[in-house]
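Worked example 3. Consider a protein that binds phenylalanine.
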Amino acid sequence: MAVEPVVYGASERPPRGDYSRARDDYTCAQNWSAYTQADHDTYRRLYERQSALLSGLASQAFIDALPSLGVRDRIPRFDEINERLRPATGWEIVAVPGLIPELPFFELLASRRFPVTDWIRKPEEFDYVVEPDVFHDLFGHVPLLFNPVFADYVQRYGAGGIKAHHLGAGELLSRLYWYTIEFGLIREAQGLRAYGAGILSSSGELRHSVTSPRAQRIALDLVRCMRTRYKIDDYQATYFVIDSFQQLFDVTAPDFTPIYAAVRSLGELSADASLASDSSITLG
Ligand code: PHE
Ligand code: FE
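Given these inputs, the predicted complex is written out as structure tokens:
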């Protein structure tokens, strides 16, 4: 079974989930009754720790939307979330056994179905888990799917992904996902804040991304972003910063076919590259 190469990069390990449960589109039933009390406790403790860190670091849109997840003292039933999410933005979440290949991933997003891994990390992985689990996927990704502009961006990204896949540009476009939906920063009235799911579900990277003088922060530029490789096993060396969710929508509206050609001819950059042309954002 191919490992999902879109979001977390090609992996040498086989993915961890049980893919025999999956339908042809990689979705499966959320195996809710299989969660143990220890699993629910892990979720509750992660939720408690992470929600206490958000103030002053997380995007206000995220903080406002977080209660839409509902219960915080156990792993939610995806159906309960969908009862609120469908009327809010027309999105629903669907269970998957874990990482999935790029084309079915893009197809789910294009049809406003967000794949959520249903298993949860073991207690010994409390601070760091190698693959995304149900806590990362729910806490990190689902609140902003209640935001109409952001929700539309993710759907359009999925449609753009199907096109990119057929152009052989899936890996280039996946960098845009990585540096926006996973690790994006936004300038709000109160200052720099995180809106990317990989940051919001991480206890250490939340503060690092917003406040560390060692991280590089650049105003989002499509070509610069899609040229830039990323780190899957360490804090990002570079974060791309937007001023509004509408900006994501606007910069991705054009036909990407010539943009992929430009990205290819300019060549890749390392995760920590710094260019004279970068529009750097300084702290304070
Ligand atoms: N507009 C892009 C194209 O034509 C598709 C896209 C949309 C990519 C939204 C990312 C986000 O290829
Ligand atoms: Fe994610």
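Take a moment to read the result before moving on. The radius of gyration is 18 Å. The chain has one domain: 19-266.
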